[in-house]
## 1
Amino acid sequence: MSHSQKRKTNGKKRQTRGKQKQTSRGFRLLRIFRGLPSWTLWLGGLLITAVYVGLFYHFFVDPFSFRWRAIYGEMAFPEGYEVRGIDISHYQERVNWEKLRNASMGDAPVSFVFIKATEGEKLFDESFNRNFANARRNDLIRGAYHFFVPGINPRKQADFFISIVQLEPGDLPPVLDIEKKGNLTPEQLRRDAKVWLDIVEKEYGVKPILYTGYKFKVDYLNTPEFDAYPYWIAHYYVDKLSYKGEWTFWQHTDCGKVAGINGFVDCNIFNGTLEDLQKLTLQ
């Protein structure tokens, strides 16, 4: 027999012995399991099921529990904050302002409302004038925001907002809502956002509020020049913020339920007292 044939024969014998060993182990394990009391098998199955359910809850249920509770009527508010409010646009349709002014958000009243005014250089929110007037009429601290569209001239966007929004003493500073980067580089986005902020600040004599999501801020607007603006952070379904910088408002859910509002509404908290909020308004 040649050396190559011997190697092949020996290899087949080793494979056969390996399979025999595996089969033997399998039979031994089977005999062990058969020898165990039935209650131990039930207990082992229950433990494995419990571990699986625990892991499933940790990774797929718990991160979204705030949203699920809110959707099914159990509103959760971050603890330790006494000043609460909402933000609205035409999506909320007709607001019942009498109900809203007397509504509660957990154990606190509705203290402030941000209202969408403009988007880009031409889109005017059809409900703005009505909502803005009614907020003042019902003694709610009000603010107006502009939804920024990347790639559109920021000067035109700022001028459009200014042409629509007439702020008065007691109103909150204007808000730049910036959520999309579009086709801009991070540098271009920061440049255009700063153009809008500078023009609006010069017009109203107060630093605008900067609204954006937690991750968007960290990824694109986390350079020192943006730390000078009051930050309104959007970060949903968490009981505590991971953001380490200073913040003024926190939009903690987009599926809140408040009397006077049809459907879901964004809910916010202010990082301070009502007196602090009043100090933030235009004087």
Note: The first helix runs from residue 3 to 35.
## 2
Amino acid sequence: MNRFLCFFMIIPILLCSFSSNVLDLFDEVNMIEFYYNGQQIEISSDQQEKFEELFCNALEGAQQMPAFGVSLHDLTMQNMKEGLWIKFIYNKTIVKSEMPFDSILINITKDCHGINLIRGNDEIFEGRCYYLNLKGTLDDVYDFLIECIQTIENKIEVELDFQEQEQITIKGEIDLTETDDESENKNSSLAGTKSSNEILKHLN
């Protein structure tokens, strides 16, 4: 069972400790949304801080390269139905390298040494992408978010099992308890049997 994860911030995030032109792409981010297999998932504030730390570490030493790809909106939406995606949302339109955006979408995968940053404008993800050549990979980010998702799914399964157990217990209690109508019918049946026995005895 998949769940959607989203964490809201009212102040800029991703305040990394080093300076880089690459990180200019993430200035003034106000909200981050996480998607897994087309569903949104929600993490805690502590997990959010850990994600920021891992993400900043992964971008350290990265280089922005000429755009290697062009996104098509319909294809991007189709691709988001599978895998792990992160959407960075801004409260205004940002322009970098003469390309505007109000959100950036990233597909996080294993063993990936470069990533396309898909630009969004009014929820339309289409046009030239930014491309980052990473010094390492996003493996630590991927593994951490997958672990968060598994923790959420396990918690949901435990809650569902507990609810099912409660329903079975309540149903069992109801089945073992006679209703007033059932008790009255049973008493009437016993009274009828007693009267019939007395009539037969008298006739004999």
Note: Confidence is low (pLDDT under 50) at residues 1-13.
## 3
Amino acid sequence: MNEMQLKYGCNPNQKPARIFMADGGSLPVVVLNGKPGYINFLDAFNSWQLVSELKENTGMVAAASFKHVSPAGAALGFPLDDVLRRMYHIAPDMALSPLACAYARARGADRMSSFGDWIALSDVCDVPTAKIIKNEVTDGIIAPGYEPQALEILKSKKGGNYNVVSIDPRYVPAAIEHKQVFGITFEQGRNDLKIDGRMLENIVTENKTLSDAQKRDLVLALITLKYTQSNSVCFVQDGQVIGVGAGQQSRIHCTRLAGQKADLWQLRHMPKVLDLPFRDDVAKPNRDNAIDVYLGDTPEDAIGEDVWAETFSRRPEPLSAEERKAWLAGVAGVCLGSDAFFPFGDNIERARRSGVTAIVEPGGSIRDQQVIDTCNKYGIVMAFCGLRLFHH
């Protein structure tokens, strides 16, 4: 099939809409269920590139959770411990494949942003992964294939209208890409840059030591940034994204946003948060929202005298500033990537407060030495990859 008609474009008033192959060839995708829209396909094609590159680079299965053409989370298929299962609302006895673990991690990075996400899987969707997806609010999925039972599980979502897309993993896009803005055609070479550990060889700080785990997480950050709306900064720990700051005009705002999300992910590990006394009839999205509010600046909106009973079986104790500070002070081993250079050391100061110990960024700022000096102040190791990763 050369083209596919869509209901509308980015908005209902934008008609007609379609995807098609301008060279007359066949589309590399097949819709197995549902009717994906314009934004769905933007998410699908960006997220597929991300997970397929992660798989190619690491040899591990990978998954991504996309919203509005940027990843809310991306992860490799490492097993989940008991704490992560509780954080991600997965029963302790539920059987998980590596692919299911990858998606649970990708979805779990920022569950508020992942509500209604588009999913990408690097490998054929198996039954354990489909069972996790079945219980989440999501718009659709793209994968190179589906086990028959997994496909039936997915088809049952949203009253039978869940979007399921299969992509040919052998598809290679043209070297030159085009898009139109305001009736004017833009042309550029496709960003086929290969990201791997060689980008971490130019270490510019006094600390020159990068562990294999740090190298893996820094590469994961760079590949994620390659498909994130710029400006962007990405925090990674233990093979999964834990905070993305995307589409900000200021680099420090990217770092603050990503750091805030990473901090919330860390705080969700606290026993006081894991043990919040939710009512049995409160759905997962409502629990996620309540946790987000509880950890935010206005916890009274979730645990105030007039509202707590809507969500909890008893009124929770608030999380004190001292408890929050003490928990975050113990966080370490976080990696950070930036899609362009840091112009000031304030980005490092903010990253350090979220437990960052390793950084990769392009370098090239007139204030590079100030940024390097700030890293040296805290013993942070930083590599200059020398290549910008803007994505628009």
Note: The chain has three domains: 7-167, 176-267+328-384, 271-318.
## 4
Amino acid sequence: MESSLEQGHFLLRIENILFVVAAIVSALMLLWPMVRRGAKEVDTRAAIKLINHQDALVLDVRDDSDYIEGHLPNSMHIATEKIEERWVEIQKFKERPILIIYSSGIRSHHASKVLIKNGFTKVHNLMGGIDTWKRASLPIVKR
């Protein structure tokens, strides 16, 4: 009887509390990516697979001048500053993956949050943005 009482207080012993806290923090860190409802970050290889095999819509959210200087083939352009008022233009693509492109990948998070908030479930940000795409010598078009 006494040993079961001792086992019951195992977690309450001061020398074990640190281990219990570490275990809880570790579990939360492992579960956080599954709980977080953000866009998935993808590298250029995964982006190409999304475009070629899953018919992803490439959404370039850079400024107008940056888009004109060069963008991915067949991409659609909506500047990140206008995404909240213009997201309805891509509503027909809700079931397709959306690949968001920005200069360095940082400001694409705002656009992805707007899309996710409005029911888009397959939103992806290109890690490193257009800069990474160019460094990989992947196709760029100018209009």
Note: Residues 2-35 form one domain.
